[in-house]
Design goal:
heterodimer; A: Rna Polymerase Sigma Factor, Chain: A; Arc Repressor Mutant, subunit A; 9 helices; B: 8 helices; 73% helix
Chain lengths: 179, 212
């Protein structure tokens, strides 16, 4: 590992001194160690290669900010991460830009293929067969939209008692509807 | 696909554009500090020092305030020059230097305000101070941004924010040495809080100017 790091630093120093072969080797080595890193982050092989090209270009543009007194890899990875985030940001921004609002297409969507859920109105008759208090609680919660706490305040019960009564009502209703 | 990479490597190696190696960030910030000191001296030669300068330098809190403000200038300069490098020149911890400096500065302002037992009169002017700080800070701000643009910051927003804080602290230093005013409330309201606002503007400018 130490040998590779030293090699990369030496290659960069030689590249900055104008050695084209060393520079080509360095870029090849860089592509070699960055490719697995990008493959972990991106699923498409095409995206990996696209981004790798962008990163190599960025490394080329920023090469004057490196000197061989510090390790090469953290410098190269910093640029790679920066370009990766930029790439993902642009990509997801494009996805959002070209996304279609559901409201725009809802008229062209097929009708529901499943049965609609049971509504309060459809089982109205069954509810009125329940004890008066339980029927009142269900009416307030499901028809008038009150919360259990609000129902409790209105009919002078505790919130827990309202929830228990509602639960018992559901069980009774379920039994009646199954019969 | 591999051929495309090989082709790109070939193109890049054939690019003969010469780039000047970036100086060490500490040398870069030292250059900014020396230039700022010279600029401050010239600005004071033109504007003149406050007439009561011999009297106010006897106030230890005034001196401590100036030293802390200069500390903010140095810390923000060093930090923004480190942020100009993609890997922060592998000195990440030093980029946080402005945080303790700001904490120290707040403490100094608090003690100076506490020591101001018989609160000094509020000057009649208000926003004019902010305006003067902005004018004096303009040149250092342009220079700092120009220098930062030559590098490759991946934290361009932070670099921009700190660059403007650094520039506006020079303006604030100049005004403290020029304006006859001892009201801490005024100084906080019209000198230092606008500096923070300028720092936030720098975050936005950094994205526009320093992104590469």
């Amino acid at each position: 590992m130490a040998k590779i790091t030293k090699t990369l630093e030496t290659l960069m120093r030689q590249a900055l001194d104008g050695d084209k072969c060393a520079y080509a080797d360095l870029l090849r080595e860089t592509a070699h160690f960055l490719r697995p890193f990008l493959k972990q982050k991106l699923s498409s092989k095409h995206d990996v290669e696209d981004l790798l090209q962008e990163i190599l270009l960025s490394i080329h543009k920023a090469r004057h900010t490196y000197n061989d007194l510090r390790p090469y890899k953290p410098w190269a990875y910093a640029i790679a991460k920066f370009r990766l985030l930029d790439y993902l940001r642009t990509r997801y921004a494009d996805h959002l830009r070209f996304a279609i609002e559901v409201s725009e297409v809802e008229n062209t969507l097929h009708e529901d293929v499943t049965e609609p859920r049971i509504s309060y109105e459809s089982i109205n008759g069954e509810i009125f067969k329940l004890p008066e208090k339980q029927a009142l609680i269900l009416q307030m919660m499901h028809q008038e939209g009150y919360t259990a706490k609000e129902v409790a305040e209105k009919i002078s019960m505790t919130e827990t008692a309202v929830k228990v009564a509602a639960h018992r009502a559901y069980k009774t209703l379920k039994r009646h509807l199954e019969e | 696909m591999m051929d495309t990479i090989e082709q790109l490597i070939k193109t890049l190696t054939e690019d003969d554009t010469k780039l000047r190696p970036a100086p060490h960030p500490f040398m870069q910030s030292l250059k900014w500090i020396v230039a700022a000191a010279a600029y401050l001296a010239i600005a004071l030669v033109f504007s003149g020092l406050r007439p009561d300068i011999m009297h106010v330098i006897e106030n230890k809190w005034f001196i401590v305030e100036l030293v802390a403000l200069f500390g903010i200038f140095v810390a923000t300069s060093v930090s923004s020059s480190l942020l100009a490098f993609p890997d922060l020149h592998q000195k990440r911890i030093i980029t946080f230097a402005p945080i303790p400096m700001f904490a120290l500065f707040l403490l100094v302002i608090f003690f100076a305000w506490s020591a101001d037992n018989l609160p000094a009169f509020l000057p009649e002017h208000t926003y004019e101070c902010t305006y003067c700080i902005m004018i004096v800070s303009l040149l250092p701000a342009i220079w700092t941004f120009y220098s930062l643009r030559k590098y490759a910051s991946i934290h361009y927003r932070l670099a921009g924010g700190l660059a403007l804080l650094s520039a506006s602290s020079i303006g604030a230093l100049w005004l403290r040495l020029y304006e006859v005013n001892d009201s801490i409330i005024h100084v906080v309201e019209w000198h230092y809080l606008p500096m923070l606002v300028v720092g936030f503007i720098g975050l936005w400018l950094g994205e526009i100017i320093l992104k590469w």
